[in-house]
Structure formats: structure tokens, C-alpha cells
Write a structure and sequence with these properties.
There is one protein chain. By secondary structure, the chain is mostly helical. The chain has a domain of 127 residues: Regulator of G-protein Signalling 4, domain 2 (Orthogonal Bundle), CATH 1.10.167. Helix content is 55%, strand content 0%. The longest helix is centred in the C-terminal third of the chain and has 21 residues. It is elongated, with a radius of gyration of 29 Å. The C terminus is likely disordered. Pfam families: RGS (PF00615). Keywords: Signal transduction inhibitor. It comes from Motacilla alba. InterPro entries: RGS, RGS_sf, RGS_subdom1/3, RGS_subdomain_2.
Length: 222
């Protein structure tokens, strides 16, 4: 058999004069830009990392814990009874608002109460110059088409709210807030009062795990 070095003289590389093969390959790899370093990929990874840190991606972490709806030790049966008197009474008390918010999370409709809370905070703005940035945030988060937490509003209410964004007033979101309030009062609130965790609170027993439910869209604003 002939010497392969004679057939392929290019393989006759002197180790004393040229770099070893693995070093040549290593330097070649370094010269090629890595795909992961492209801005688009890096931005997507950053967004995904932030997204995974959001509480809604870890619902099972708190739903498995007893008393996830509210801390039974801090809510007496008498106080829980008051929550059933009216929806306004429920939202006016911090413990009730917290309990209802956690209940909506089990139905994947927490954007409604979050929007209502944002509107309450918006109306408490101390100066006019605070209104514009807050209004823009609320509109982009809850109202505009394909917003990350878009609430269910009729076309007229959404259009009127959109038109007032140029010079927002403290009353800019009143119509939208009232619509979402009615939606929760007529749709989610009755189910909250019938839920097993709330009934346990009435009996003075610790709240157990609330079962996951699909997003409720049974109530549609006409």
C-alpha cells in the first residue's frame, strides 16, 4: 500500500511549523459570529425570561398551599358574611378584595379586577401631569386591541375612552370601569359566593385548594 502522504501531500503538515488541527479549528470557530449573539435572539431570550418570572406562570406554586384564597386565621366568619351582602362591600375591604382577586386568578380572569384597581389608583392622582403617563399605561395594558390584559368592553365604550386619550381627565376611564365592575358583579361575584373556599370561610374552616377553571367569558357586554 502506498504512503498516503505521497498521494495527498497536503496532509504532510509539520507540527513544528503549523498550528495543531484542534487549535486551527478553535480559532476558526472564534472568528465566526455565534448565532445566539444576534440582537433578535438575545431580546427574545430576555423577554422569555421576564415572562417566565410572572406570577401567572407559577400558579401551581400557591394553589397547592392551604388557605390560598385568603388567610382563614385573619378572616372571621362574621367578616366573610359581610362580603356576601354586596359586591361593593367585598371590594371595600382589603381582605375581601384580596380574596376575590385570588379567586379570579383561578378562573384566569384577574385582568378585570386589576383594571378596576388601576382605575381607582388613577382617579387618586394628585396632579394633572400624572394623568397622561398613567392613562397611557392603563390604555395600553387593558383597553387597546390585543392588549396583554385586554378587558371585555363594548365598541362604544372602547371608542369613547380611546378618543379621550389625547387629554385624559380623571373621568377618562369611568365608563370602562363601570362596565367591568358590572361584569364582575353579575358574573364572577355570584360564583365567588358559591365557591368552596368562601363557604369554608363562612364556617370558620381553613380554605382548601381552589380547583383550576377555564377562563370565564360567559358574560358578554352588549
Amino acid at each position: 500500500m502506498e504512503n498516503p502522504l505521497l498521494l495527498f501531500p497536503q496532509l504532510n503538515i509539520s507540527a513544528s511549523k503549523d498550528k495543531p488541527y484542534y487549535k486551527v479549528m478553535k480559532s476558526t470557530i472564534k472568528e465566526e459570529p455565534h448565532k445566539a449573539s444576534k440582537p433578535g435572539v438575545k431580546q427574545k431570550r430576555n423577554r422569555l425570561s421576564l415572562l417566565l418570572q410572572k406570577p401567572e406562570f407559577h400558579e401551581s406554586d400557591h394553589l397547592d398551599k392551604p388557605g390560598n384564597l385568603t388567610k382563614a386565621a385573619s378572616v372571621s366568619p362574621e367578616e366573610a358574611v359581610k362580603w356576601g351582602e354586596s359586591f361593593d362591600k367585598l371590594l371595600s375591604e382589603k381582605a375581601g378584595l384580596d380574596a376575590f382577586t385570588k379567586f379570579l386568578k383561578t378562573e384566569f380572569s384577574e385582568e378585570n379586577i386589576e383594571f378596576w384597581i388601576a382605575c381607582e389608583d388613577y382617579k387618586k392622582s394628585k396632579s394633572a401631569h400624572e394623568l397622561l403617563p398613567k392613562a397611557k399605561t392603563i390604555f395600553e395594558t387593558f383597553i387597546q386591541k390585543d392588549a396583554p390584559k385586554e378587558v371585555n368592553l363594548d365598541f362604544h365604550t372602547k371608542e369613547v375612552t380611546s378618543q379621550s386619550m389625547g387629554q385624559p381627565l380623571r373621568s377618562t376611564f369611568d365608563a370602562a370601569q363601570s362596565t367591568v365592575y358590572r361584569l364582575m358583579e353579575q358574573d364572577s361575584y355570584p360564583r365567588f359566593l358559591r365557591s368552596a373556599p368562601y363557604l369554608r370561610l363562612l364556617q370558620g374552616r381553613p380554605a382548601a385548594r381552589a380547583p383550576l377553571r377555564r377562563r370565564s367569558r360567559s358574560f358578554t357586554v352588549s
